[in-house]
Amino acid sequence: MHETVIASSLLKIILEEANKQNKALLVDEIHLKIGLLNCIEPQTVQGCFEILAENTPAAKAKMIIERMPLQGFCKNCQKHVEIHKRQFHCPNCMSSDVDWQGGNEMQITSINVHEQEE
Ligand SMILES: [Zn+2]
């Protein structure tokens, strides 16, 4: 399953980040941004992540996933536009003659950690 692969690579990145600092850290929150066209299901990723993260410093981490708007250029009104839903027409003139850019990205925007108490 696609989401399992994503969840395990996320976990790897996050644990590497946490291990870079020479302290026992616990991961509290992971903030992600996902492009509007990326078809992964946030809830499924979170579910997989919880299973994979068991017994790691990220076991209690909360995943906060934000959808990124899709950017495009409308050829009809010659303007840069963005949409927040998968309705592929210009929000100004309703034209479908729009060059959409990206939409499949996924990035970790921040990881919140705290030091483990002895
Ligand atoms: Zn337009």
Structure explained in plain terms:
The chain has 118 residues and is α+β, with helices and mostly antiparallel strands. It has a domain at 2-68 and 104-115: hypothetical protein PF0899 fold. The chain is 25% helix and 36% strand. The protein is built from two helices and six strands. It has helices at 2-20, 42-52; strands spanning 25-35, 62-68, 70-74, 79-83, 98-101, 106-115. Strands 2-1-6 form a three-stranded mixed sheet. A hairpin with a 4-residue loop joins strand 3 and strand 4. The radius of gyration is 18 Å and the shape is elongated. The mean pLDDT is 91. Zinc ion (ZN) is lined by residues 74, 76-77, 90, 92-93, 95.
- Give the second-level CATH assignment, the architecture of the domain at 2-68 and 104-115: 2-Layer Sandwich
Shape: elongated
Strand order of the largest sheet: 2-1-6
What is the count of DSSP helices, taking H or I runs of 4+ residues?
A: 2
| Mean pLDDT across all amino acids | 91
How many angstroms separate the termini? 38 Å
Named once each, the bound ligands are: zinc ion
Total strands: the figure is: 6
Radius of gyration: 18 Å
CATH topology of the domain at 2-68 and 104-115: hypothetical protein PF0899 fold
Can you summarize the main beta sheet?
3 strands, mixed
CATH class placement of the domain at 2-68 and 104-115: Alpha Beta
Question: Which regions are unreliable across 5 or more consecutive residues at pLDDT < 50?
Answer: none
Q: Estimate percent helicity.
A: 25-40%
SSE succession: HEHEEEEE
